[in-house]
Amino acid sequence: MAGLAECVPNVSVGREPAALELLQRAVTDAGVALLDTHSDPDHNRSVLTMAGGLAEIRRAVLALAGVAVRGIDLREHAGAHPRVGALDVVPIVPLDGAAPTACVGQAHALGQLIWERFSVPVYLYGQAARQPSRKRLEAVRRFGFERLSHLVGEGKMLPDIGGPSLHKSAGASFVGVRDLMVALNVVLGGCSVSVAKTVAAQVRERGGGLPGVKALGLYLESADEVQVSMNITKPFVTPIKTVIDTVRERAASLGAAYLHAELVGLAPRAALGRDPAALGIRGFGPGMVLENRLARLCTPPRIGHCHGPS
User: Fold this and answer.
1) Phi/psi at 217 (nearest 5 deg)?
2) CA atoms within 13 A on the CB side of 182
3) CA distances (Å), 101 to each of 3, 61, 93, 162, 212, in order?
4) 10 Å Cβ neighbour count for 130?
5) Known catalytic residue: 38?
6) Which burial class, exposed, middle or buried, applies to 151 when counting CB atoms under 10 A from its CB (0-12, 13-18, 19+)?
7) Can you tell me the distance from the alpha carbon of 205 to that of 208, in angstroms, rounded to the nearest whole number?
8) How far, in Å, are 188, 190, 196, 197 from residue 224 at the CA level?
9) Residues of the chain with CATH 3.30.990.10
10) Where in the chain do CATH 3.30.70.670 domains reside?
11) Is the CA virtual torsion 129, 130, 136, 141 positive or negative?
C-alpha cells in the first residue's frame, strides 16, 4: 500500500470498557485497521494504534474525536498521566511511502477539522509544529488541562488552531507528525514515587541520560506500585534493552526492586533486539511487533523512513 502511515491516538479514558469499545468501533467503522489497543486504569488513558492511508486515518481520527468529545468530561477526569484533552494526542507517523511533508499537511488539515466540527482547539507539535518552541509535546501538555485553561484565559499559550479558550469539557488536542517511537513502562517495587521520579530524571535525555528518552515517575494506585513511564523517541539509537537495563541499575542503586516492563502499543522489530523474549516484557508475543501487525497491509512492511522530530 503506497502512502501507509501509522497513527497512535491517546484518549483520556482507561476505566470504562464500554467507552473504550465505542472508541475502537469508531476506528474500525471508518475502515481503518486497528492494530492494537492499550488501556491503563491508573493512567486513565488508552492508546489506539491504527494504520492506513492518510485520508483513511483522517476519517478515523475525526470519528474518534466525535466519540471522545461526546463521552469524556475532563472536569470529572482523574489519572496519573498528564492530559489536556479528551482526544489528547494524535501523532501521525510516516511508514511505507508516506512523505513527511504529506503527513504534515494532513496534520494541519486534521487540526482544522477537529476545531471546525467539535470546537476543540488544537496545538501542533513535532514536525507539524508552527512554533519551534512547541516541537516537543511536553512544552504545552506539561501544564495539564486545569492550568492550561487558566493560562489561555490570560492570553498565554494560545492554541495554534481555534480557541482562544479550551473546550469546557474536552480541553484541547495535540496533533503532530513524529518518527517511530516506543512507549515503555517499568514498574518498581519496594520504593516510593520519589524514587521513581529520581530514576526518571536520571534516565531522561534532558537530564543527561539516554538519547531520545523522555521519562516520568508515577504512582499506580491500583497495585500500590510505582512506575517509570517512558517514551523512547530514538529506538534505533537507544534500544529497549538499554533502557530496561539502565532503569534496573539506577533503581537498584536507590534500593528499589525491578518488577517488570510493559510495552504501550507496538514496537518496531529493530528496537527489540535479537532476542525480544529475553527482555522480560510482560506478556510479550509476536503480536507486539509492529511489522507483524503491518504485514497484511504492506508486503514487505517498510518502516523507519521518516526524518521528522519526535
Assistant:
1) -100, 125
2) 31
3) 12, 19, 11, 22, 23
4) 13
5) no
6) middle
7) 5
8) 10, 10, 13, 15
9) 5-177
10) 182-294
11) negative
CA triplet 212, 145, 65: central angle to 5 degrees? 85
What pLDDT sits at residue 37?
95
Q: Which amino acid is at 304?
A: G
Q: Which three cell numbers stand for residue 152?
A: 489561555
Could you give the CA distance from residue 84 to residue 146 in angstroms, rounded to a whole number?
8
Beta-carbon neighbour count of residue 17 at 10 Å? 10
- Compute the distance between CA of residue 54 and CA of residue 5 in angstroms, rounded to an integer: 7
Q: Give the pLDDT confidence score for residue 302 in this predicted structure.
A: 54
- CATH architecture of the region 182-294: 2-Layer Sandwich (3.30)
Cell for 125?
Answer: 507539535
Over residues 78-93, the mean pLDDT reads 95
pLDDT at res. 307: 30
User: Tell me, what's the pLDDT at 303?
Assistant: 57
From 3.30.990.10, 3.40.910.10, 3.30.300.30, 3.30.450.20, which CATH number describes the 5-177 domain? 3.30.990.10
Sign for the CA dihedral angle at 226, 231, 234, 240 comes to positive
Active-site entry in 38, 43, 77, 81: 81
Alpha helices of 48-192 — where are they, by DSSP H?
A: 54-71, 100-118, 138-141, 144-153
